[in-house]
Amino acid sequence: MAVVHSAAGQHTLRERNLALVAQEIYSADEPLSRAAIAGRTGLTRATVSSLVDLLVDTQIVAELDPVFSRRAGRPAVPLVPARGTYFGIGLEVNVSYLGGVIHDLTGTPYHRVIIPGDFHGSNPTDVLNQLAHVTTELINAVHTSNDRPTHSTPIIAGAHLALPGLVDPNNATLRIAPNLRWADLDPVDTSAITTAITNATGQHITVRIGNEANYGALAAKHAAGLNTFIYVSGEVGIGSAIILDHTLFLGRRGWSGELGHVTIDPEGPPCSCGSQGCLEQYAGLDAILTAAGLETADGITGLTTALHTSDAAATAAVHSAAVALGRALSDYANLLDIHMVVLGGIYADLYPYIVETITQALRSQVLSAPWATFDILPGTLGSGAAMVGAAHEAVRDVYTNPSPWISTDAP
Which end of the chain has fewer CB atoms surrounding its CB within 10 Å, N or C? Predict the structure, then answer.
């Protein structure tokens, strides 16, 4: 049967061109003028000027002071992402903390909350109610901030929730988060968070959910401007994500990257996922602390303190973890031909103690090693990278699809 493609109507064409112009402004290394955008996109100057005016009027784009040149003609007006107008909320549930952050279109954080705790076996309803209170605090902080324009009312563009497990973002379902001991939340009940946003702003926002390592990888991409890499998020559990040519690779159902459940030894210790000998039983935070003779309550701070004093048990435990992690990453590199790795979460704190061991494993276990260069980089965002990535994603739709934010009465 023949497939019939309908021609783009005038309204659809405007939507596409609005998105094109907005993304040119948001992706530019330096502020662009209307003339520069016309040159980049092939649109007429009149069309670009009309579209930019819509974006400026809607406070998605801001104008800087005109730049005068020696050439005849009107001065160029540089265009930049608008600051302090639209906001994205990023929330995260992890085994050892809850948190949230709120960002504007420029990626500037306005407020951040971290609540330490032990959330093994926690009640999902109780935890999500706590995040609702965090959400209210984030929004209130924006309303009282002196760092945004006084003439505008802040608009919440979206809210994303990062969870450490198998997440189906299409239907807001969490299949399993072994270390939280959450399973079969279909859907994840984010109504308390939605209500908090509505009460604070009058807006109704659907909270989207996703995997914490995926959000962490997106945050690392934004922070470092990286193109293709493997991101590894180390906490009690271990997650990972793949960025290919600036794009997050999700797999068929969005469940790729479960590095923590790669089998290191099939006869090894039981894992919370039901298998045995998984990587996180050797290189997860609780496993390292136990091997180091420390209490799990000591956390990463207790571990790094022991390492600073050259504690023999801590040094040996971290070395063994690095060996196991290097083995798993070597399999990754052999399968995917990706030779850049960003170590996030606790691995960023442990980076000086593990980077050489991991690099040696890659050099000795990856087939292409004689012809490849391995780049093992520390993450720069620490704990909470996932909430940063979630906030970026929550506000990104404003400039990738600006039409819904523009009045239907606009020409």
Answer: N
Tens-digit pLDDT string for the chain (411 aa): 343 333 344 568 889 999 999 999 999 999 999 999 999 999 999 999 999 999 999 999 999 988 876 665 678 899 999 999 999 999 999 999 999 999 999 999 999 999 999 999 999 999 999 999 999 999 999 999 888 776 678 999 999 999 999 998 888 999 999 999 999 999 999 999 999 999 999 999 999 999 999 999 999 998 888 999 999 999 999 999 999 999 999 888 778 888 999 999 999 999 988 899 999 999 999 999 999 999 998 999 999 999 999 999 999 999 999 999 999 999 999 999 999 999 999 999 999 999 999 999 999 999 999 999 999 999 988 888 999 999 999 999 999 999 999 865 554
Instruction: Count CB neighbours of 49 within 10 A.
Output: 14
Tell me the CA distances in angstroms from 358 to 22, 102, 174, 333, 355, one per residue in order: 41, 35, 32, 12, 5
Q: Which of 225, 273, 265, 218 is nearest to 385 (CA)?
A: 218
User: Which residue type is seen at 307?
Assistant: L
CA atoms within 13 A on the CB side of 10: 2
Residue 290, token pair as written in the block: 């136990």
Residue 299 zone, left/alpha/beta (φ > 0; ψ -120 to 50; rest): left
Q: Which two tokens stand for residue 339?
A: 């030779």
Q: What domains are defined for the chain? A: 10-81 (1.10.10.10), 86-214+386-405 (3.30.420.40), 225-381 (3.30.420.40)
Residue 239 near residue 213, CB atoms below 8 Å = yes
Distance CA 155, CA 157 (A): 6
Cβ–Cβ under 8 Å, residues 204 and 198? yes
Instruction: For residue 243, list its beta bridge partners.
Output: 229, 248
Using CB atoms within 10 Å of the CB of residue 8, give its burial: 0 to 12 exposed, 13 to 18 middle, 19+ buried: exposed
CA 289 to chain centre: 27
- Put the strands of the sheet holding 229-234 in their side by side order: 247-249, 238-244, 229-234, 340-345, 375-378
Task: Pick the closest to residue 236 from 349, 378, 345, 127 (CA basis).
Answer: 345
